[in-house]
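Sequence and structure are no longer studied apart. As an example, we show below a sequence and the C-alpha cells encoding its fold:
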Amino acid sequence: MDDVLFENRYTEDKTLVREFHKYCLCKTHRKIGIILLIIGVVTGALMSMSQFGMISITGTKGVILWEISIVAIVLGFMLSIYYLMTTRIALRQDRKAMGGEIPETVIQFTDKEVIISELGKIKTFHYRELGESIETKNLFVLPISRYAAIVAAKNGFTYGNADDFRKFIEDKYDPARRI
C-alpha cells in the first residue's frame, strides 16, 4: 500500500449533506427551477401590465398566460428547494440504516487510490474510476456515479490540509470546478 498523503475524517451532518445535495445531486433541478421562476415572473408581469391597460392581451391568450405564470412559479419554487427535501430523506435513511447513529467516515488519499473506511468496511477506488472533482464551500466531491461520490469535508483533514489537497486533486484531474 502507498503512503497516505491526505486523511479526512468527519461525521455526516445536515450541513454537509445539504451542500452535497444542493451542488451535486440536485444541481440540474435547481437550475430548471430558477428558469421556471423567471418564466413565471416575466409572464406574470406581462399579464399584470395587461390588467392595467399598458399592453393588450385578450381572450384565451390571457387566460393561458396567467395559467403558465402560476404553474411556472409553483413548479419553479418546488424544484428550486427540492434539495432540502432530499437532504432530510437522506439523513433519515442514513440514521435508520445505522441504528440511529451516524459513524465517522475516514478517507485516505494515496498517490494511486482512495481508501474509505466506514463501519469497519474498507472500499478502495482508483482515481481513474472517479469523475471530475467538484469543490464547494465546505466540501471536495469526487463522483463515483450519478448518485454516489467520495465526499471530503474541508475542515476534516487530520493529515494534510484543504489547500494542499486542492492542488493534489487538480494535478490528478482537470482543474476542479468551484461552486
